[in-house]
Write the structure tokens for this entry.
Amino acid sequence: MKRQMKAIRRGLLTAVMILATVGLPARGQYAGGSGTANDPYLIATAQQLNAIGLREADWNKHFRLTADIDMNDLGETPVNLIFFFQGVFDGNHHTIANLIYRVKDEDGQPGSPYVTVIGLFRVLSGWDALVQNLGLIDPNVRPDPTCTRSVNGVGALAGSLKQGWIRNCYVKGGHVAGSSTVGGLVADCSSDAAVSECWSSADVSGSRTVGGLIGYVARASVWSCHVAASVSGAMNVGGLVGVVQKEDSTIEDCFTAGTVTGSEAGGLVGYLTEGSVSRCYSTASLSGGSSLGGLVGKNHGLIHTSWAGGEITGGMYVGGLVGQNVEGDGIFLPYFDTQVTDSYATGSVRGDNVIGGLIGSNEGTLLRCYSTGAVTASGAVPASSVKYSGRQVRLQMGHPGLLLGYDDQRREHERRWNWETHGRNAEPGHLSRRGLGLRRGDRQWHRGPLEDEQ
């Protein structure tokens, strides 16, 4: 009886606190401001930050942090995620530490087998939505052991970003986990959204569509971002992005390091179904099953002026730059002239079958590409059954360099670096600006050896 009375008192006290919070004027909940662009609400404590999640009327307002915040200061008070934010949140170069959230069944819709879009901001939406200049320190966002539903769309900062912009934000340390569509910073970035100048070092894990920074990108732009973390999943795993869809999606000037584990996994992007990757690189090491690539695991898009240098160990379709370069079958994937241009790989490649220093299996167009890494058959498949390996393609076709494990010869390729067109001073391991079509004064995307031409 005493326990029941205590529980009733706690429930009544919680209800009173929530009602009191909702009933108070906004100015009384925050450290100052009126919520406008010229006079944003000021947030100085964990309690004030937590109050935003209870005030739906403020989800289209302007906010600014005025101090570093530690969510441990909330004590036993539950964290209130901000459900549908359409305003502006300026971190003002401050940090939010120890955002710990355990996803439970009640976070989902009644009757649904899923819990979706989890993050400090569950949904960021609208052309004016903006989060900038904010750091998250050691967040820990994952399903609670009691959760019986599949938890999809998990990111430390945002579960879903649509049309809005996240810029100059980062996640330092911590762990983000879920089932499908999981990202260290953002889970789902789509509908003309943008993420720029962001980075993450949080470990990320899930089942499929898992990215070190973003789980899923569709009709969106990502540029000037990087990741150095451990990223793991079963399928569609990328050091930066798990899956990229829609032809107008772009990944530019990004790089990754760390480790990536899974199938259809890449050091930068797990599965590039459409869209483009330009001026990017990865030194992440990869291990897992099939379709592993130092930069992109499976490619049905465009890759330009990019490189990879991580060690790769996998099963079938393993390449130093791309595991599988596919043109589409016209049914599940539309026919598309998949292209890899002005790119190279230097990492060692080890696999069971269909392995290449540059690409494991190729159906697309290659222009001005090369590889220098060692290619080794693991021995898991008997030598008599290894039909395609980089070394055998070299012997059969007379092209040195261990470029391709399997090549669809219906395509025309310039498999090696074009020495005559691009200058004989470009040696393996180096790319000149002239060779890459870059002009003097262009952004130096290459963070490895790069020759300066006079």
